[in-house]
Here is the input.
Amino acid sequence: MSKFSVASLPEVFVSDGTISKAVHEAAERGDLRKLASRLYTRNLDEDPEKLVRRNWYTLIGVLSRNPRKFRSVPQPNPKAPVLLAGDGRGGAPEWFLQGLCR
Here is the structure.
């Protein structure tokens, strides 16, 4: 197994079972920042809303590669974050993404 390197990760990425321990440890050290469940960034300086807005296409791509359907749940407040969620069958991520608003 190759050594884990924060620098080799994309700016925004989803942690999975193969790297979850190393990602958790890097976040504890302050080398990564958690944005949502299993969603991390190595960009420690930029506002999370800007990161999400700039990387929205990548985030949708991550969800769409999941064989489960994903849905966007409307929020009552137009300024509320967008909720992207799996179909509720185990393991599918559910993210409230600040920066993606209607």
Notes: Residues 20-29 form the longest helix (10 residues). Confidence is low (pLDDT under 50) at residues 67-72. The first strand starts at residue 12 and ends at 14.
